[in-house]
Every structure is written in C-alpha cells, then in structure tokens.
Design brief:
This protein is of the alpha/beta class and 294 residues long. It folds into 2 domains: 28-113, Leucine Dehydrogenase, chain A, domain 1 (Rossmann fold, 3-Layer(aba) Sandwich); 139-272, 3-Layer(aba) Sandwich (Rossmann fold). The protein is 40% helix and 17% strand.
Length: 294
C-alpha cells in the first residue's frame, strides 16, 4: 500500500508556482491576485479559507479575504460579487460554500464572472469542461487529476467508480475520468445514495473516488485488493483527546481499508491540500487569460 501524500505533493507544486511568480516579478508583470469571500463563521470554512490565504502568501501571490456577517442579505452579497467582477486588480475569486440558508448559492455562483470563477463552478465553465475545452476545472477534481499524474497511476481501461454525484466533485470527476486523455480513458460508474447494491459496484472498482459526506462509509468488504482510493470526504467529530477538540474523518474507513489498497489518500493530508494548489493554478490561469486580452 502506498499513501497518496497530497500534503507533500502540494508543497512540491507550490514550489513550482513560487518560481513562476518570482519570474513574473522579475519581468515587472502583474502578480496574480486571489480573493475569497467568507460569509459567517463556519469553523471548517474559516480554516479552509485561511489555508488558501496562507498558500497565496507562501508562493508570492496576492490574496484578499472578505468576511461578511451571516446576516448579510442575498442582495448585498450579490453586490459584493459584482464589485469583485469589476475590480481589475482581482484576477480570480471564490465565494466559500456553504452559504447561509437564506442565500441561493446557485444564484451567487452564476453571478460570478466566468473569467474570474477560479473554483470552476459557473455553468459556463462546467459546460466548457464537458466539451473538453480549455477552462477552469473544479478545484477538487483538478487536484485528484494532479495526484494521479504525479504518482503515475494508470487509468486507461480501468473501471472508475465515483460515489457521490455533487456538481462540485462527483459529477465533474466522472466526466473527467472518462475523457479521451490522461488521466482518463476509464469506464466510469457514477453512484450515489440511491444506488442499489452499492457494495457490489464498489467491489469492481480499480479506482474508487468517494465524495459522499458520510464518515467512514466505505469499509474493507466494499473494495477489492489493489484498488486505488481517493477519499474526498472530511467530517469533524468531537474528540476530547485532541487539542482542537475534534478529529477529522474521511468517507473511507482508512484503518479498515488501507491494507487492501494499492494507493490511498489519507484524511487529512490527501485531497484537501491538492484542492488548494489547484485553486492557485486556476488563479494563475485567470491572470494569464486577462493579459492575453490587452
């Protein structure tokens, strides 16, 4: 069993990005600028957004964090989105999900200018992805693709089972793994909470990507020997033995499944760090796209 070390791989990619940013500075060109909008004080979201800001600082990119109270109206949030759309200094920005229940996250996502949508969630960018046109890939699927490449995992002709059909991870991941390229050329089965005989399907997976949001859902009896596992899930559970007061759990029962896997991502330290560096790479892509227009 080999651990797919997302933390180590992300650090390697950050070093590569830092060199690219340094070259831009030496040439006197604009430094890519990422902004993040955080609504409310959700602990997990705050931790994640702070990690993005720190990652920007580490590679020499500019970053801005815009914090709004969870009582902010949908109209006020949309006004902030439009302000960022029009700000020439901002190359790309994200609105951290989830949003408070009184705000329509789809409306907010669609309000983001596609050329600044570095999360890759706008219907315009999703459509271009489905047509295999150059665009921003959703950050988490993009991170998984980079792990596959960095660890030279064979995908051609493999059966890839995706558990979870969200528009953020599951659905785009299924599309990307079926593309006629590398990583890709898999036969893909997209499963979800309503799938009948799920364990029978997951046991046939050569590559298993789990993004269901149910901690430790996948157990050893649900996978075959030699499977490659990407665990996207991350859930906080109270744990008094931890300084933080909680422990992070993935959707895969790691201790139960790891011995059967050829490759597996840990939680934390697997897919999460790769999502952040993918966001940085998308921001650089946004900045390059802007420069081409002028």
């Amino acid at each position: 069993m080999q651990i797919l070390d997302g933390k180590k791989t992300a650090e390697e990619i950050k070093q590569e990005i830092a060199v690219e940013i340094s070259n831009l500075k030496q040439k006197g060109k604009k430094i890519p600028h990422l902004a993040a909008v955080l609504v409310g004080s959700n602990g997990a979201s705050l931790t994640y957004v702070n990690a993005k800001v720190k990652a920007c600082e580490k590679v020499g990119m500019k970053s801005s964090l815009i914090r709004l109270n969870d009582t902010v109206s949908e109209e006020e949030l949309l006004e902030k989105v439009e302000e960022l759309n029009q700000d020439e200094q901002i190359d790309g920005f994200i609105v951290q999900l989830p949003l408070p229940k009184h705000i329509d996250d789809k409306k907010v996502t669609e309000a983001i200018l596609p050329s600044k949508d570095v999360d890759g969630f706008h219907p315009w960018n999703i459509g271009k992805m489905l047509l295999n046109l150059p665009t921003f890939l959703p950050a988490t699927p993009y991170g998984i693709l980079q792990l596959i490449e960095r660890y030279n995992i064979e995908t051609t002709g493999k059966h890839c089972v995706v558990v979870g059909r969200s528009s953020i991870v599951g659905s785009p991941m299924a599309n990307l793994m079926s593309r006629n390229t590398y990583p890709g050329n898999c036969t893909v089965t997209l499963t979800h909470s309503r799938t009948v005989n799920l364990a029978e399907i997951t046991r046939t997976a050569d590559i298993l990507i789990v993004a269901l949001g149910k901690p430790e859902f996948i157990t050893a009896d649900m996978v075959q020997e030699g499977v490659v596992i990407f665990d996207v899930g991350i859930t906080r559970k109270p744990d008094k033995s931890k300084k933080s007061g909680y422990k992070l759990h993935g959707d895969v029962n790691y201790s139960d499944v790891a011995e059967k896997a050829a490759f597996i991502t840990p939680v934390p330290g697997g897919v999460g760090p790769m999502t952040i560096v993918s966001l940085l790479k998308n921001t650089i892509l946004a900045a390059k796209g802007k420069r081409k227009k002028f």
